[in-house]
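job 3f2a | input accepted
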Amino acid sequence: MKQNALINNIVKIETKEKEILRNVLLVFGGTVFLSILAQILIPLKPVPITLGSFAVTLIGLLYGRKLATATILSYVAAGTAGIPVFANFKTGVLFSPSGGYVFGYIVAAIFLGYLADKGFTKSYAKTILALIIANV
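job 3f2a | predicted structure (136 res):
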């Protein structure tokens, strides 16, 4: 299957080693990006509104299914391991009211990444439709 994710059209790779290095750096960078945007929030109880959802949709559309899923799973693993990456610099929120959103991040990344791989990002209408469905 030819992947049409935007990142593959931006960064051209010649060797397998460079592709692996690129993917590792993209996953790390995406995890840091999501961690930073998760700290920009409107404090509500019990679940704050953050820019984490925006970061997840952007990562899903740019990276494609495999890289987006790896990035979000790395984010979840970092927060579960005790690194304060979740909103309000919290850790281990998977079994709190915010946990549903974190699990939703994984589903949204897989869904949007899959659509990006299928070429949905080449049309504004299809991209907007995919974003609406993913946010629902």
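job 3f2a | Helices lie at 6-10, 16-37, 52-63, 65-80, 99-117, 124-135.
job 3f2a | closed
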